[in-house]
Amino acid sequence: MASVLVVEDEPGIRAELIALLTAHGHVVRSAADGFGALREVTQAHLDAIVLDLGLPDLDGADALRMIRGISQVPVVVATARDDDAEIIALLDAGADDYLVKPFSGGQLAARLGAVLRRSAGASGFPAGAPGTATASSSSSSDAPPARITVGGLEIDPRGRVAHLDGAELQLTRREFDLLAYLARYADQVVPKRQILLEVWREPYVDDQTIDVHLSALRRKLGERGARPRYLQTVRGVGIKLVTPR
Length: 245
Prior knowledge:
By secondary structure, the protein is an alpha/beta fold. The chain is 38% helix and 20% strand.
C-alpha cells in the first residue's frame, strides 16, 4: 500500500483518479493546484505523486521544480504535451515518468506501480546480462561495481555520480540508471527489452520511454550528428555504449 498524491484541477478527473488508485490499494490524497500540492509534500508522507501540468495557479513544470527543491518523492507527470523537447525538459526537471493524455486507468496504474518498485529498489542496481536475465532475477554477485570507466566517462554506481572528461554530469535518477547499466556492458549491444526489464523493471513500458531518456543522455554527453561518440543505436537490435577509438 502506497500513499499517492493526485494533483489535478478538474474535479471529475480528480475523482476518477482517486477511485482508480484506491481500487488498486493505494492511500490517495489530492490537491487541486500547485501550491496545494506543495503543502501536501511538506506536511504528509508520500510515496508518489501523479502531477497534472495544466494547473490554475502554477504551470505543472514549475510545480515539479519546486517539489524537487524539497523532496525526492517519485513523480509521474500527466500531460497533454507530447513534444519530445517538452518531455525531456520535464525529465530533466526531475520527473520519474510521464503519461500523455488521454491515457487509460490501467496504464496509469502500471506506470505508477513501476515507479514505486523502482523507488523501493533505488539503492540497489539492476541485475543480469543482456539477453539472459528476467525481471525478477537478482544475486549478491550483481552488486554494483565501485567504478566504471568507458573512455572519458567515469561512473560511480554506488555514489550515483558520473563524470565526462572530468566534469560532473547533471543526470536525473533514470538517466543515471540507464547510463550506468549500459556502461556495465560497454561495447555490447543491449536489447531495448532487456533495458526495460533491468532498468525500468517493467516489460510493458513502450520504447518511446527509452528513446526520450536516450535523447536526453545524448544531449548531456554532447553527442552530435550521425556519428555519436558514445551512445549508438543499432537499428532493430538495441543500444550500445561504445568506447571511443
